[in-house]
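Re: How this chain folds, sequence and tokenised backbone to follow
How to read it: Take the token row as a discrete description of the fold.
Start of record: The labelled sequence and token lines come straight after this line.
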Amino acid sequence: MIVAKSFSCPSGAVIAATNIGFGGAAIGNQFKALAEDVVTATFDAAWRSGMRVFDTAPHYGLGLSEMRTGQFLRSKKRQDFVVSTKVGRILVDCPPDEVTAAEFVDTPQKRRVWDFSYDGVMRSLAASLARTGLDGVDILLCHDLDVISLGTSAEYERCADEFQSGGYRAMVELRDQGVVKAIGVGMNWCDAAEDLARRYDFDLILLAGRYTLLEQEALTSFLPLCEQRGIGILLGGPYNSGILATGTKSGAIYNYAAASAEVLARVGRIEAICGAYGVPIAAAALQFVLSHPAMVSVIPGAKSPEEVALTVATLEVAIPAEFWSDLRDAGLLREDAPVPT
């Protein structure tokens, strides 16, 4: 079930979270345009289920996710929810042929500009507050400060220098002033997140897709470092963008692309053990990541009330201890991976 929990940040703030939150990429029209009534119904279903953590970003739908998130949350009491957004990309008006929407469709007419500087962080948050209509956010995350996202080593070095010389200082000032409660980074890659966690004092890290039933390399050094430093984890992508929810059906998606033969084979082995115990693979995937002690909130995305209901249902599935033992015996689960009890 969805339960409330408090997380004490290394900086001293307390975040009143829920173990399951709402990932806001899908409602930014990721891969598919959503009608406004569907968006509203999805948010309503999430709220009724007990979700109180809402994650968004300028990147998601070129501000559309932030606008939709803010429109919904403005009707709620501010103390009743936690909202996180991100910095690192400034959204700029542009001609139609310059829109940088990536995997998002039917977005505002904007292009993204990388900016991790002091002024860039301040401008980004101010624009996010204007889009959401909120007077502050609880969690502010530096978004995608890694070579893969930035495209080249030279661009990464430029942006890393901006963050070191000013962007991080801006985030700390915003936290010290009480504009935000907690700061951190949002990343898709463990190595990059770990490097930043060693260099800066963060409260929370959003890690997407790199600690799942399919991938557990984060247990080697990243998650132990977070436990040692008291850094909480917001976990995105618990289904690896689809395949751990759908299984190996035709067209299965892994990391936003068609799953490779190698990934399909490994998931097929997990599916076989799930089938032997009558456990839906989505239930195993979600309950597995929730069991790690560093988890503050797991934030799967949803683009319909039905997907919210499925997430809630997976929490209620009874999974015997023998199931996890069989995964270990099959070499599908690391010996040091925490499992539900």
Notes: The mean pLDDT is 97. The CA atoms of residues 70 and 134 lie 7 Å apart. The longest strand covers residues 82-87.
